Amino acid sequence: MITNASDMFDRLVDIARDHLGASSYAGETLFAYTAQEQPGVVFLVTADEMADLGLRLDREERDAYSLWCAATTTASCSASDVVKALPELHETGLDVDALREEAGAAGDYLTCAACTHLAREIRALIE
What is the count of structural domains for the chain? Predict the structure, then answer.
């Protein structure tokens, strides 16, 4: 049972998280997901943006996801962006899991999300 605005917000975020298969970062203030229409790219959005998508989906709005994408400012990163930005991956063979930990500890949630969602693609580029 939803008893307050906070519960409603969390419910809407959960609807969007389930729809996108998103993972959370920074104490569930940021969420990362990949989209079939742009393979090899990870997107990072705020909890407020997730709640907006959840509301659109809950209302069963026509083209909810597409309209949300058009209205949302996302940060994005591809596997090749990560590899280009971190050339030491080639030289040292830095493990993608170690990179994920380092990025998360440094507050670089986009790189952290890329390592989570695009690990296979990143590994293929550094091998």
Answer: 1
Residue 52's nearest CA partner among 37, 36, 64, 34 is 64
Secondary structure E strands in the chain: 23-25, 30-35, 38-46, 75-78
- Cα–Cα distance measured from residue 18 to residue 100, given in angstroms and rounded to the nearest whole number: 23
Q: Decide: 99 and 89 in contact? Cβ < 8 Å.
A: yes
- Between the two ends of the chain, the Cα-to-Cα distance in Å is 50
pTM, rounded to two decimals: 0.86
pLDDT digits (tens, 9 = 90+) for 51-92: 999 999 999 999 999 999 999 988 999 999 988 887 666 666
117: containing domain: 5-126
